[in-house]
Amino acid sequence: MHSVNVGIIGYGTVGSGTVEVLIDNKETIKQKTGIEINITKIADLRIDKIQDKYLDQIPFKTKDAYEIINDDNIDIVVELIGGYEPAKTFIMDSLKNQKHVVTANKALLAVDGLDIFKLSDEKGVYLGFEGSVGGGIPIIRVIKEDLAANNIKEIYGIINGTANYILTKMEQDKKEFDEVLKEAQQLGYAEADPTFDVEGIDTAHKITILSTLAFNTIVPFDKVFVEGISKIKQVDIDFANKLGCKIKLLAIAKKHENDIEVRVHPTMIPNRYILSKVVDVFNAIYLISDKVDRTIHYGRGAGAKPTGSAVAGDIIDIARKLVSGCQKTVSTLGFTGKYTQYYPIKDINDIRSSFYLRFNALDKPGVLSKIAGILGKYGISISSAIQPGESSPGDVVPLVFMTHETLGRNVNNAVNEIDSLDVVKDKTVVIRVEGKK
């Protein structure tokens, strides 16, 4: 029986989930791999305050991460503390020590991962990061290896469970964003500070990683357009239903001949699309490739055990390679050449799509034609409209338009002019639309 020694830095949600998976299924892993995975050390600054039956089974516990990084008997270092520093330093020092590394640190890899990817390849050691995107959904290896013969053209992802849960409950319970967010926090689905989740930042970290792998290029995180769901109103969800659609926080990446688009924003999608069926805290990633066509990858996108399972999968994958004596043959990002950006990122204003527009305007003669006239001035044609039912003259009422495809720039210019009208009383709500009903 072969054995591989593992040291884990960080014993929070994902760290504890990883240990639970590796201990509970130790015999299963042995039967499948012929390898005994030994967790020999765990480091955490709170280690002496944690009461845990799994932690009790680990032979060595410490507050000092370098007790793991500098241990010659440890083959794989697992970084699960999150954040930028000291996580990056721990990973870099582990790689310099010829340690193989597994991490689930999406923010670090998306924002500042280039040095890590390069060093992993220079040292000829493995870097596993399956747990960084999609929790327990296998997707990193799918893109790097299983779809290596394909040109991936498009990615659509619901990859933040908190945001998807909130939008689901807003629709089901007919409640506004703030109320549902408080309930999600009470249930543990949302953090005390939910900014990364509800403002799309977490989703942007993940689509940065996925599009980098899929399009064979470094995607700079600061070039990704990001818009969250905190401004979505119940009225917009109701109108979406009337239009046969759902509103989802989508991560979208598309490869064109000379550039790519990578963006995160609330998106209206038709009910017949499979992503519209993804509810609550579940995630889904939809890929379109040139040879295999469409594939969808669905499951739990977060949590101790699902993400711990993904981390354990990376550990097992590396352990198999170590035991077989396999030299590293696949680059960390799955493509050859220098890690340099060579596809320009398309500006959000230069992307064509259909749009949902909701205006709050005075109910008086000529208002509808005035708004339609400004849209026409900027080359925006209307595919459908919803006008108010019963109302009294002078009331402020919602006017909803669905447009045909047009440039985002045209919509911005039109909306700015419309919002300056005396008869329009609030800022226009603009939601991009993907797919055809």
From TrEMBL:
Q: Which residue positions are annotated as catalytic?
A: 206
Ranges for the ACT domain? Answer: 356-432
Query: So what does this thing catalyse?
Result: L-homoserine + NADP(+) = L-aspartate 4-semialdehyde + NADPH + H(+)
Q: Which domain of life is it from?
A: Bacteria
The cross-references to SUPFAM superfamilies, in alphabetical order and at most eight, read: ACT-like, Glyceraldehyde-3-phosphate dehydrogenase-like, C-terminal domain, NAD(P)-binding Rossmann-fold domains
Its Enzyme Commission number(s) read 1.1.1.3
Q: Which UniProt keywords apply?
A: Amino-acid biosynthesis, Methionine biosynthesis, NADP, Oxidoreductase, Threonine biosynthesis
Q: Which residues bind NADP(+)?
A: 9-16
State the Gene Ontology terms under molecular function.
Answer: homoserine dehydrogenase activity; NADP binding
Protein's pathway:
Amino-acid biosynthesis; L-methionine biosynthesis via de novo pathway; L-homoserine from L-aspartate: step 3/3; Amino-acid biosynthesis; L-threonine biosynthesis; L-threonine from L-aspartate: step 3/5
Q: Where does NADPH bind?
A: 106
GO annotation terms (biological process): methionine biosynthetic process; threonine biosynthetic process
Amino-acid positions noted as binding L-homoserine in the UniProt annotation, renumbered to this chain: 191
> What family does this belong to?
Belongs to the homoserine dehydrogenase family.
Q: What is this protein called?
A: Homoserine dehydrogenase
Provenance organism: Deferribacter desulfuricans (strain DSM 14783 / JCM 11476 / NBRC 101012 / SSM1)
Q: What is the lineage of its organism?
A: Bacteria, Pseudomonadati, Deferribacterota, Deferribacteres, Deferribacterales
